[in-house]
Design brief:
seven-stranded antiparallel sheet, alpha+beta
């Protein structure tokens, strides 16, 4: 290690972060629209076998998406995504947690879109959890696998 080197990635941040990425065979604008268009995101969002019951959806800074994610066994998981920043065809930043105002496990979500020279787009989903312990819990219950399945469903959606 170089003496005096200061990494742009502090260890404390890495201890709380989950990252999942996919290359999708779609243009930057098409991949972004799949996330930013309320009519599209409800068609593909969530892990394999899960369905959505949307109560409210307003995808804009300050808007929110309230929905239940229904597991294959019928268990409903309440969700609320509050959109903080949207830069068209570049990124979406939001807070994601249960549909409760005081959810201590709410995490920051950052979805970025990077155009490739071959017409494909790299979609990166980053979750910043409140503590390293919470990150460990969500990884333990399958957050990485579920995130991968969600991006697989996105890829199928935009490649149609």
């Amino acid at each position: 290690m170089t003496e005096g080197f200061v990494s742009a990635w502090p260890a404390a941040q890495l201890d709380k972060e989950v990252i999942v990425t996919r290359v999708v065979s779609a243009s930057l604008d098409r991949a972004f629209a799949a996330w930013a268009d309320p009519a599209q995101i409800v068609q593909w969002f969530g892990p394999e076998g899960f369905t959505l019951d949307t109560h409210e959806i307003d995808i804009r800074p300050g808007g929110r998406w309230r929905f239940d994610m229904i597991a294959p066994d019928g268990t409903a998981f309440s969700n609320r995504i509050t959109f903080l920043r949207i830069e068209p065809s570049r990124l979406i930043e939001a807070d994601h947690g249960t549909d409760a105002d005081d959810d201590p496990d709410r995490f920051r979500l950052l979805v970025t879109f990077d155009a490739q020279d071959n017409g494909k787009t790299v979609v990166t989903l980053r979750q910043m959890h409140p503590t390293p312990e919470r990150r460990g819990i969500v990884i333990g219950f399958g957050a990485v696998e579920f995130g991968g399945q969600t991006l697989d469903k996105l890829a199928r959606h935009v490649e149609r």
